[in-house]
Write a structure and sequence with these properties.
Helix content: 40-55%
Number of helices: 3
Strand content: 15-25%
Mean pLDDT: 78
Low-confidence stretches: none
Largest sheet: 2 strands, antiparallel
Structural class: alpha+beta
Amino acid sequence: MKKAICILIILALAFTSACGKAEKQTSSFFAYDTTISLTFYGQKVSDEFMNECIEYLKSFEPYFSMTDENSEL
């Protein structure tokens, strides 16, 4: 009985460690007078989605820029 439980625990650990391999995709860009890095873990992210995220973050720059004279700040 103890042998069966040990085998089940070892198998469970083996299966859970195999699921832990997540792909990492990183993209860097310049905005807000600094370099920003986006990192996604998990399934492969399309370049189109990554570009949409970058454009979305850049869309706020006119409102939050400290160096732009027309900024709300």
